[in-house]
Amino acid sequence: MIAKKLYYTDCHLAGRKYYDADEVWEKLKVGTLLHLEWDSSNTHDDNAVAVFYIDPDVTGDDGRYMLGYLPCSHNEVVAALLKMGWTQVMECRISKLDADAHPEAQVRLTLRIKRNGAREK
Predict the structure, then answer these.
(1) Is 120 within a domain?
(2) CATH number of residue 91's parent domain
(3) What's the total number of domains in the chain?
(4) For residue 121, pLDDT beyond 80
(5) How many CB atoms lie within 10 A of CB 3?
(6) C-alpha distances in Å from residue 88, one per residue of 62, 109, 111, 120, 121
(7) Prediction pTM value
(8) What whole-number distance in Å separates Cα of residue 36 and Cα of residue 68?
(9) In this predicted model, what pLDDT tens digit does every residue of 8-63 receive, in sequence order?
(10) CA distances from 55 to 18, 23, 24, 40, 65 (A)
(11) What is d(CA 48, CA 69) in angstroms, rounded to the nearest whole number?
(12) CA distances from 112 to 33, 78, 85, 93 (A)
């Protein structure tokens, strides 16, 4: 049997204290699905990948909360895929939350590569 997802990496959420995590902290749980987007306007890192929580209870952009970024040490391949239009290839979920840790270590992420829906014959 072929797996539906392949483990890629784990990392902490970077820049968490500068964005919207506090606004949705109570909604974040281990296993929460997050959304990744290449931040083409980021002047500090051409490979910046922003991490968003999309609130299912709120419609439109009001339900989009930027939590931070993938750290530079983990963003190059993900950014390349996103730049090429492979927006659905990666799955990002929260794997650990620790409100008492340093802000840069409060949210741990797990990234997996999702299986292509097209099957070979």
Answers:
(1) no
(2) 3.30.70.2330
(3) 1
(4) no
(5) 9
(6) 22, 17, 12, 19, 22
(7) 0.91
(8) 10
(9) 999 999 999 999 999 999 999 999 999 999 999 999 999 999 999 999 988 878 89
(10) 19, 11, 9, 23, 8
(11) 7
(12) 11, 11, 17, 9
- pLDDT for the residue numbered 120: 45
Instruction: Give the chain's mean pLDDT.
Output: 93
In a domain, 119, yes or no: no
Other C-beta atoms closer than 10 Å to the C-beta of 49 total 27
The pLDDT confidence band at residue 3, using thresholds 50, 70 and 90, is: confident
Cross-strand partners of 90: 113
Is residue 91 within 8 A of residue 7, CB to CB? The reply is no
Q: Give the C-alpha separation, 117 to 2, whole Å.
A: 12
In a domain, 88, yes or no: yes
Q: What is the pLDDT of residues 62-100, one digit of tens each?
A: 899 999 999 999 999 999 999 999 989 999 999 999 999
**Cβ 40 vs Cβ 87: under 8 Å:** no
Task: Give residue 29's domain range.
Answer: 5-114
Note whether residue 80 is domain-resident: yes
